[in-house]
Design goal:
CATH topology of the largest domain: TIM Barrel
CATH superfamily of the largest domain: Glycosidases
Helix content: 10-25%
Distance between the termini: 85 Å
Shape: globular
CATH architecture of the largest domain: Alpha-Beta Barrel
Largest sheet: 10 strands, antiparallel
Amino acid sequence: MTSHPHPLLRRRGPAAFALALALTGAALTTAASPAPAAGPARPPASTAAPTFDAPYLDGVSGAEPLRQVNLAGRWGFTPLTDTVCVGGGRFGTTTGPMTCTSSPAGAPATTIQVPGGGWLKQGFTDLSRAEYHRRISVPAVPGPQVTKLDFGAINHRATLWVGGREVASQVTSYTSSVFDISDFVTPGRDYDITLLVEGRKALVGPDGRYAVPEGASWSDDVAQGIFRSAALQVFPGVHIADAVVRTSVRDRELSYDVTVTNNTRQARVATLDTALSSWNHAGWRYPDLPAQRVRIPAGKTIVVRVGPATWRAPAASYWYPNVPYRAGYRAQLHNLDLRLSSGPGVAASGYHVRFGFREIAQAGDHFELNGTRVNFRGDSLQGANYDNIDYHGRSDAYDTFPGFLRPARGNAGWPKAVDNYLRLNYSGVRIHQIPATPYMLDVTDELGLMIMDETAIRGSNNRQNFITGRDNMLKHAADLVLRDRHHASVLRWSQANEPRVPFFVNPGAGPEFDEALHATVRRHDTTRPISTDGDSEDLPHDDYTVFCHYDGFSFAQYSESICAAPAAKPRGQGEFIWSADSTPQGMTWFGTATMRMREQGASEARPYALLSAWASIIPGVKRTDMKLEIGYPEGPHPIYGEDNLPDPWTNPTLTLIRQAFNPVAVIDSAFWNANKLSDPTGRWPTTPANITPGTNTRTLTAFNDTFAGDRLTVTWTLRAGSPTGKAVDGGVLTPRIPPGGQRRLDLTFEAPDTTQPLHLELRVAKAGSGILYRDASTSYQVRRPEPPAMK
């Protein structure tokens, strides 16, 4: 990542975060100096489109340029080719293979906003190839310099010309596209640049499938062209190109690798200095990291490995998720600031990495975070659904829709969305198919939401070719890992979504392709578990597993299966319920099915997808703003948005889900099992449990999905008539349950002989945390035993 941090966020602390939350100014700005038009002006549908210039989206970590010129604003734009692709596989128009027809673009040369959410958002719906044009002025700095053009994201193939000379061509998917133009420019001079961009429809092979990982094959709304940001950057001739931090809680060690590039014609000797500090402004004692003297040959790149050094700070300095939920929580993060000096009179190179000291591992049949079992309960956030929202045009929601951005007037932004997830007791989110912006991951780092980071590789719609697109697929996986591996909240990699499914045969799918992806991810990061999500075969690696989807072909059905898996691998289901997730009954299953999976010891339970039920978990979304994937583009609306659910925390179904995901839930197992299917209206519970007057023993299941402390205090009260009625029995249980575990408990009570319903109130507390769980939804009906039949 080579983008310069936003000045506000470079303050690198929770105070800066709080200031960002308090901002009420406009979130969208326009560049001061637009580029000249490349042709006659045509007022496209997006004439009034905002620039959507938000440099903070590129994240707080990365190289620090000596000079940076923001290139956001109007560029010249020449549409070249329109392409219309029609699906028509046996599962409908959103499946492949496709039939595509190309023709010269119908729109003349005009101007376009950059980044502006890409060309699709600005009204060029059929466009597949186009040229961007503008003139740049190259800053000059003392001494040798490296000059780069950094585009925050381009979908997909970009070929750059500077002053009429071709520089390079590269293929990217939702990650930055960076061109070193040092050999093509002279500092202090002006140049015309042209960027030819070919979107996904330009990269469809003869078999009617994409040769690029484009993320959401079913959707016509995903970003195309340049989006997120555009900048001209200048670095010293000898500079830090990359840095990665590795932490080990088990060994209490810190190490890091620094990639140094010498772009000059002479060997250079430089000094690498390191400073550690707390993002939270805590007074931790950090390891001493002496300066390193390094020699870099002319025109070469080397990697400087530092450490391991002993981590001196206590366990309170470790990164942990916000589990159990605490309002206002901030995870512990640390700053590594690097400075490379290559002599007097020569500008130094800087690089900033914000990281968390933590360790995630796949430990046999479960996962461990910082040595403690961690169970993932969460969601799959599919950005393509939100791309369907017409906010100054459809497309690129992550970079343009206020609910994914920094807080601004009228919208609490992405930090509120993350808080919604955590308050709902969702401990983790798979960023599904459309990779998150670096800013989104910065916020999950800070607020403590665990992330599964997924590539845009997708087999579900039979529209990607893993043979013709193999190199692009592997490069994309590498790009994503290299971009996101410094994020503390990114705990796992999903290398592909459903590359192999029972009803499709994507060319190239299978174990060999899965192995190639696994090797690519491992080449750049050995510190996180890796999975394939779907129905692929397992691979013989201790850090790898497959999380099945819709076990037993259970689409639109209730499922509590945690799927068959090798004995020494974690189990769980990565998608279930869809496409019933936009029905009241299906929404109830989010809670009931997840609870049944928890009882079976699932390491993963991820009902699909919360946005279909509660779209306004992302602030600012109304239920009528978008249509869902099923039946796209004429699919149903979500059940709830801000227009019909202004107070989600009093909604009974969301309350049920919140209880089912609670890390220290305690339930009457037979009662939950009897009520798990709900009814078509989503009502829960539907049926009381029958008990007899006198002594009754019920089996409870208690969970401890916290990260410290094994003692729970379970206070129970049996009430007559209503959940707040007169207490007729009660007591306290004090089970010891190791973190990440569960335990069956016998609860014995005396039931009065009454026609009134009885309600079991359960409260769970932990020392130092107070009451973490309270529920009174379990009900009983007292029935006298039938007398024995007379002979």
